[in-house]
Input
Amino acid sequence: MKNFILSLILAAFVLPAQADEGMWFLMHIERLNYRDMQKMGLQLTPDEIYSVNHSSLKDAIVQFNRGCTAEIISDTGLVLTNHHCGYDAIAELSTAENDYLTNGFWAGNNSEELKPKSLSVRFFVRMDDVSKRILSLLNDGMTEAEREATINREIAKIEQENNEGGKYTVSVKSFYSGNEFYYFVYQDYNDVRLVGTPPASIGKFGGDTDNWEWPRHTGDFSLFRVYADKDGNPAEYSESNVPLKPKYHLTTSLKGFEENDFAMILGYPGRTNRWMPAGGIAQNVEFAYPAYVEASKTSMDVMKKYMDKDQQVKLDYASSYAGIANYWKNRQGMIDALKQHKTAESKSKDEKAFQKWASKKGNEKYANVIPVINGYYKKTNEISRHNNYLSLLLRTRMATLPYRLGNDIEYYLQQNEAKQAELQPKLDAEINDLYEGIYIPLEKDILAAQLKLYSTKAENVAPMVAKLATENNKTDMGWNNYLDTAFKNSVFESKEKLEAFLANPDAETFKNDPLLLLSRDLLTRYRYKTEEEKQWDNDYDRAFRLLVQGMRLQNPDKKYYPDANSTLRLTYGKVIALPADKRNDANKNYYTTLKGTVAKYQPGDAEFDMPKKLIDLYEKKDFGQYADKDGYLPVNFLTDNDITGGNSGSPVLNGKGELIGIAFDGNIEAMAGDVIFDDQLQRCINVDIRYVLFLIDKYAGAGHIIDELTLAK
Ligand code: ARG
Output
């Protein structure tokens, strides 16, 4: 028995950490990962990946518009990211006449590049650990609110100390649920211009049907350029700005790769919940996600109806539709995967082991953690359902627009003429911004559909909605009729109407505006918590922090990495196939080819149409230097890197740190990956860089862009 236990302990000790699992901090690579990475094929030193003293790989990785990742691939500031990351900017720059989303766009030179209204890239300068500094100010007697206030005061100081008089943006974030703290120093550039994009029939080939699926055939890339002032500093848009000379840019590899080759990804994963307790998973599967999925689909159906009727409406709503559709499919995939893999059950086993550990002498601090966490989830199931319906309702623009303008307008109306004149420009800009590309018939319909859903499916709904629901009989018709009148009687019905009102205002009418009242009702409900609920949250936060802390003490030999939270991480693994799949024509199921793309081609289809020119190139086998040595034109490929939303657009690098692809998706079988990593199932779907270059060169005829790159042949 003794030996048995000893061998168990030894086994735990010598088992290598899952090479492919983990989103690691760059400053920890040397200590935690380097030897492992070297064994797998890395040829760079840790210093070549991350250095604060000289340029390194990290200088070529940017966060793209706060939600995606991108990489610098030329010494003239060329930025490569996904098509779906550039989508919003491309749609914004498109009109029904010049529809770049549908037809693609390629600037012939710098002066033809297009500046979208707002688009930024964020460079990473350095990071450091401030855990000791912050934790030394905290103690177990504090409430969560006191704790938070103390942390925030210290964070403000750390930001101040490191921003070099405003030159940098400093962000301090908590890791391991408030057990560690790191600060990150960034430099933001706000003049970023569109250089090129394939048409959606390439960049979004396969649409929502293929989204989150493998085998995949999507040319999911777009190209931008960062501009700076003549000294290389960030500057707002100006004609005199010049392409940025970056500290470092990636070398692009034409050499291809094979199965089991080393592959690493640097980027900004948005959010994972790998520490999520069993109760949280069960709550999501049963209450939160079903509501989210149902409400998303409700919005999508209404949007689609209007988008199909009018090309301008389609462009105006394309990006927001794609965003909703993406997570609609993701959340349904999560429900299915979490159920199928019994993730809650396996987490629950870990928690039983933890409870046993916590009941040992010396671990009393942790004894109550699991009961508090389980109790919390039992009490909040209905609340989570309610909150998901309500947050999808609040994503409809007319649910929040009156609220957002309301306070500013009320303030404005209270001022004297001089002060009003001073406030006017800002208010006008805000109004223009909020009404930009809005289509009221669609908005009214969506709002009616969401109000009906919310008032019938959620408990404890906002008071005004509850009252209206009774009066309107909770039917579609009832809500539509109500909103017809409400819009007619509201100054928010259109921008023109609002401007006319402001030219001749009446504070009394404004106060009783039906859409303002509704909007305020919804937002007030969204923020409302009973004292009891606040106490639950407080107890949960503390228990969850102790759970993570305790689990790390319980397993002292395990290498841990913190959950994703939109900070720069590195993940490494290899190119690797999934089991053979007859839907994939390639010899091995780790890549797809242009032949497979053409096999999916459906002329005129909204998702599977292809440009004629691409089919011609395929038929002539005119692949130039971009074909694989086996003759096929590669399109997408798989690695076992550990990524999530936010990593979109991240570079996939070989052992020399050369660019071999762009990460753009995950597979549906692995949707549980947000809460548990499964190395058998989880794959990262990437665009082969050779497909990207082929499209730029052969399809778009933009050889001048290829000339900018540093190629490794
Ligand atoms: N699933 C991808 C991601 O979350 C987005 C793909 C966008 N494409 C689409 N058909 N909606 O990064």
